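Render this sequence as a predicted structure.
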Amino acid sequence: MDTIRLAIVGCGGMGHRHMYGLAELHRAGWERFDLVGACDPVLANAESLAAQAEERFGKKPVVVGNLEELAKVGIDAVDVTTTPPYHHTVAVETLERGWHTMVEKPMGLTVRACNLIRRAEEKSDAVLSVAENYRRDPINRLAKALLDAEVIGKPRFLIHHAIGGSNRMLISVWRHQKDQSGVLLDVGVHYADMIEYLLGEVETVYAQTRLHEPIRHNPAAVSGESGSNPAGVYTEWQRKMPAEFEATAEDAAYATLTFKNGVIGQYIEDHGAWGQGGWVRQINGSQGSMTLPGDRSGGVISLQIDGHGTINDERLLDLVPDFRLDAVTTDLFGGDRLWQYNFPFSDTDAKIIAIEYGDFAEAIAGNHPIEVDAYQGTRSVAISYAMLESGATGQIVHLDEMLDESINSYQREIDDGLGI
């Protein structure tokens, strides 16, 4: 297989995390990509990524400020890790140039932005992948296999609760701005993808939404210590952000979901909760229940099955004798039948991003279809906005109406700002 000449477009915190993931893929022996470009209009960010890439790969990618300059480098594929408002403008252009494109979630800032990318992909021969990482966690792969084997019978209802946050900044200022990708979109698309990965397509959403904490605080600007800093890569940027700022995006959603297969979901995503926080992802079926650990934690699934009591150890694997992780995941995590793992978070983060790259490379080679495609990436954005649209209108929202843009009252202001 020919080496794929890759550039990372958008060299902030997420771009650096993706580069670490690519290095982890190479460390595991999967050297499909040659990182030849680091592209960012803020050249200092691109220089930082390029310098760290040189340490890991022994070769420094070319630093450029725009796609026009990048084209001169000679590119086969790009990884788009810009901030969300630029996802559609960059991805549409890279697809038009015929470059295979992996774009960070949310795929687009709005459903309309996603649909622009989908149309560009339909006209292009290039592969489009959405970098959705949670489903690639080996424990979530096992959960999917257990559900498919109906070890808890037919799923009946889902409880998904993610509660915490108080008034602290989540990673960066822009994640609290409606026109940049508020937290219910930025985090919610992960949960939306996981919910559909495990249980199939959502059909309707009814939600109440709130902005509980209109002023957010950034501890890194005061003490230098960060409260929310995945893999520890955001420190230098967080110290330059304001100590406090106004939030314009809702920070809590309380929703009822219905699925096409009849499953009902109770969903709480509250990033402004004080006191006792909580995490629950539980699925109850006709013969038992499954409680999942937090994504990327390496924790253990707990099954309660009538007549068998609690199963939360290696016996989980006995229930799915044919379960095997793919080759890339196996090499990264050290086994093809995992029921738990224990790595520092920064290592886990890099390994799971490496799996995204592995899937991207295999799809480019024509070995299999991309796993998280433009349609699924759009659906995740649509589910997150369905909650916001329902919260704004008080109406039950059908996903079909989100996908065809017939409901977009909440998003219209964002679309207008994007000029689309």
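Summary. The longest strand covers residues 155-165. The chain has a mean pLDDT of 96.
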